[in-house]
Amino acid sequence: MRNRVAILHGVNLDTLGRRDPVHYGSLTLPELEVQVRRFARELRLEPSFFQTNHEGEFCEELHAVADYADALLLNPGAWTHYSWAIRDALEVSGLPAVEVHISAVEDREDWRRVSVIRDLCLATVQGKGVEGYREALELAHDHLAEAAR
Ligand code: DQA
């Protein structure tokens, strides 16, 4: 089974640990990545991690990601809600993707309920903090396992 999963974080996710703990908890991004790496290994997935605050860089990573990954977990931060460029780049990647949000975007401001990538993704996991990444990895795992049958 193909098992490489790229975990892509977008704008402001590098400031985890300094953001409102009510929505984002207290883990820093490196701490979150340690946990996500552990979840991935438990599922026999090979994780890789990327974060940028630059939209064009995020797009370029999506252009290249199929060279080194078989599936994606994607948390583009605020870009989720309006970046058609990232939506188009996700389509270019051609990879199965799961949209992840640490906070409960459905229960916050109206503008956070909009996602321009949602219909390209296998599923959206939101409001579950770091545990949401485990769930998203399980969904990616099950999709890759099904594709290998
Ligand atoms: C976020 C939710 C977005 O609305 C917000 O702009 C972020 C993080 C999340 O993980 O909950 O930066 O994607």
β-strand amount = 15-25%
Largest sheet: 5 strands, parallel
CA-to-CA gap between the ends? 9 Å
Total individual domains:
1
Oligomeric state of this protein: single chain
Radius of gyration: 14 Å
Judged by helices, strands and strand pairing, the structural class is alpha/beta
Mean pLDDT equals: 98
What name does the CATH topology carry? Rossmann fold
> How does CATH name the architecture?
3-Layer(aba) Sandwich
Order of helices and strands: EHHEHEHEEH
Q: Which spans of ≥5 residues are poorly predicted at pLDDT below 50?
A: none
Strand runs, count: 5
By CATH reckoning, the class would read Alpha Beta
Q: Are any ligands bound, and if so which? A: 1,3,4-trihydroxy-5-OXO-cyclohexanecarboxylic acid
CATH superfamily: Dehydroquinase, class II
Main β-sheet, spatial strand arrangement: 2-1-3-4-5
Count of helical regions: 5
Shape: globular
Helical content class: 25-40%
